[in-house]
Design goal:
Helices cover about 40% and strands about 15% of the residues. The termini are far apart.
């Protein structure tokens, strides 16, 4: 078999020079008769560009490789020889050894655009199983697995499927939400770039479950690599007969609005309208895209289906804790030493994730706060680090796990400024449909600025609390409804930052 050299084509690796490394290694590989594979990322960002070579003992990695390293690497690389940046077998590194990779099992391992490799690694078996089952039995498998939506709300996937399946209509749709707007998250992107056939298989399983003839993947425009990867993989799957006659997939590109990740605004956007939130009911499962019953799920939710069908619901449910079953691809970002994607069963504590897996801060400064769950997530202080990564445990502490993003802040962060940023974000991203969010976020930012300037601090904190309650209970969707979480958690856990009147009002940026 031809020896292969793996250089990630993933956007994060490309951002740190993977294309230049590939171009510099290409003549050396050609001279040795070695094939270059542009694989996905394995998710350890500090090792990118992680170059791997086939060796008798398995794949051997070198990282992080810059184009300047090629001169010293090329002479030893093809024999997997010694080099200061040799990291050995990636699977043996603690960052990977501690993971349970169910969804990301193939990401960074196989050639993402090879359907043959995908199938050889167990791909499409879940779809075959799904097609052998009656709709009700298929949905029951998903129910038994305990799978909940990974897009943010954690809603039981099988319930949505059942509602859509039971709706009587001549046409139904599956929509994959790949808008991935949460700060510090990149799992959807990594999966679409590194294992696109998994998402296609997951969507085909969902379509089988509900009887859909057409699926859409709504990808944010900031993900050009993922868009290309999905378009190419869809074409390949179509040529191979997995898509086409009974179910087909179309890739659609968003236009840069955070709110278009909200499922009903996403539907408006797909219909060619300005993305605005629709009141519910009707639920999209009953009346969604173009008025037809529509199943909307996040990339990671759909990508979990093939494992559940292949290995069985019990195998998936075996992982996790409480009502949070299976694994969660957690994304570590911000001031963190070992940033990247870490897939693990629910239940690992926040402190383990930040300090043991993440290695603490990159700067070496103490951690002061972490924001979990994107821009709508609460800020937790280190005293909350015993919280297990679990939907209910986070809710009990007025937080949310959302799409699994953890952003770490060191002791230089000003939490009043972060609270102001939350309100400002809401002002900019509000769809404008309801008053608590559209007007409340503007008033909220102004009130925080008064507090930061030391103006009637206690009275303004009371106004802020009142305003946050109005937004929380009066907003039409979770953008206005959840922005109070970062704001009020900052006030609750870091009160000193709101009462230090002497602090100058820093410029936004
Ligand atoms: C403002 C806002 C933005 C959202 N952005 C996303 C997103 O980028 N991706 C996503 O999957 N879900 C997002 N959601 C959640 C979706 O509305 C919806 O719950 C999800 O797509 C359902 O899929 P799931 O059940 O698989 O999680 C967002 C929700 C809100 C309120
Ligand atoms: S909460 Fe904000 S984003 Fe949501 S519907 Fe109201 S105005 Fe639109």
């Amino acid at each position: 078999m031809t020896q292969r050299l793996y250089i990630p084509g993933d956007a994060a690796a490309v951002a740190v020079g993977a294309d230049q490394v590939a171009a510099a290694l290409a003549p050396h590989a050609a001279a040795k008769g070695v094939a270059i594979v542009r694989n996905g990322s394995r998710g350890a960002h500090e090792l990118e560009t992680l170059v791997e070579i086939d060796a008798p003992q398995g794949r051997v990695g070198y990282g992080p490789i810059d184009v300047e390293d090629v001169a010293t690497l090329a002479p030893v690389l093809f024999d997997a020889g010694p080099h200061p940046k040799r990291v050995g077998r990636p699977e043996e590194l603690p960052f990977f050894k501690k993971q349970t990779r169910l969804t990301f099992a193939r990401c960074g391992v196989i050639d993402p655009q090879s359907l043959d490799e995908y199938r050889a690694a167990g791909g499409m078996k879940g779809l075959e199983k799904a097609q052998s089952l009656q709709q009700a039995a298929l949905i029951d498998q998903i129910l038994q697995s305990g799978l909940r939506g990974r897009g943010g709300a954690g809603f039981p996937t099988a319930i949505k499927m059942k509602t859509t399946a039971e709706a009587k209509a001549p046409r139904k749709f599956v929509v994959c939400n790949a808008d991935e707007g949460d700060s510090g998250t990149f799992a959807d992107r990594m999966l679409m770039e590194g294992d696109p056939f998994l998402l296609i298989e997951g969507m085909a399983i969902a379509a089988t479950a509900i009887g859909a003839y057409k699926g859409f993947v709504y990808i944010r425009s900031e993900y050009p690599h993922a868009i290309r990867a999905m378009q190419k993989a869809v074409e390949t799957a179509r040529k191979a007969g997995y898509l086409g006659d009974t179910f087909d997939i179309e890739i659609r590109v968003g236009a840069g609005a955070y709110v278009c990740g909200e499922e009903t605004a996403l539907l408006d956007s797909l219909e060619g309208k300005r993305g605005q939130v629709r009141p519910k009911p009707p639920l999209p499962a009953i009346q969604g895209l173009f008025g037809a019953p529509t199943l909307i799920n996040n990339v990671l939710t759909l990508a979990a289906l093939p494992f559940i069908l292949t290995e069985g619901a019990a195998a998936y449910k075996d992982y996790g804790m409480g009502r949070s079953r299976g694994t969660m691809p957690i994304q570590l970002a911000g001031d963190i030493k070992n940033g990247g994607l870490f897939e693990t069963a629910f239940g690992m504590s926040l402190g383990e994730l930040v300090n043991d897996i993440g290695g603490g801060t990159q700067t070496g400064r103490p951690v002061r706060a972490v924001q979990v769950g994107g821009p709508l997530g609460a800020y937790f202080p280190p005293s909350y680090f015993d919280t297990p990564f679990d939907y209910e445990a986070f809710t009990a502490k007025d937080g949310l796990i959302g799409h699994g993003g953890i952003v770490v802040f060191n002791d230089t962060v000003n939490m009043a400024r972060q609270a102001r940023f939350a309100m400002e974000f809401c002002t900019v991203e509000s769809c404008g449909k309801c008053t608590p969010c559209r007007i409340g976020s503007v008033r909220g930012r102004e009130t925080i600025e008064k507090i930061m300037a030391g103006e009637d601090v206690e009275a303004n904190l009371e106004i802020l609390t009142d305003l946050c309650n109005t937004m929380k209970f009066g907003s039409l969707c979770a953008l206005g409804g959840f922005i109070p979480y970062p704001v009020m958690s900052a006030v609750r856990h870091f009160p000193e930052d709101f009462r230090a009147c002497a602090r100058a009002l820093e410029p936004v940026g």
